[in-house]
Write a structure and sequence with these properties.
about 150 residues, Immunoglobulin-like, four-stranded antiparallel β-sheet, mainly beta, elongated
Length: about 150
């Protein structure tokens, strides 16, 4: 069975992620059914398998393709970004809520063995990052014809 799994080599980050999730649930900000993962500090990602490829789509509203970094190393696909807060204009008053500031994230996925790492392509449109992960030719499904003996 093939699968694409989230990969996090730094167990310390995992502990912090678990803590954030726990505190988010406690404070009513946790990831609930129908909520977007991007509200919890990391982009929502969908991955589907097609006959000759895998397709990863990540929601990255407010970012441009220049602010996103994609790397593949030893079957680990990583997406990351560090977007700094734009210089705020001088405004009257005091901020009561300020959630749009520095936005950075890092997501990593362990790729199946049948992915052709050299053929990976990415595109970005309207805040949606699409990464196409082609399968190696020898790993693709083939039809075998049966001849009469």
């Amino acid at each position: 069975m093939k699968s694409v799994v989230t990969y996090n080599p730094e167990s310390v980050l995992s502990v912090f992620d678990d803590w954030d999730r726990l505190m988010g649930d406690f404070l009513g900000r946790g990831l609930r059914e129908g909520a977007s993962a991007s509200t919890c500090g990391y982009p929502a990602v969908d991955i589907r398998e097609e006959k000759e490829r895998y397709v990863l789509e990540a929601e990255l509203p407010g970012l441009s393709e220049k602010e996103v970094d994609i790397k593949v190393n030893d079957r680990i696909l990583s997406l990351s970004s560090a977007k700094a807060d734009e210089k705020a204009e001088r405004r009257e008053g005091t901020w009561l809520i300020r959630e749009r500031g520095i936005r950075s994230f890092r997501r990593a996925f362990s790729l199946p063995r049948d992915v052709d790492g050299d053929g990976i392509q990415a595109s970005f449109k309207d805040g949606l990052l699409t990464v196409v992960l082609p399968k190696r030719p020898e790993a693709r499904e083939k039809s075998i014809s049966i001849t009469r003996a």
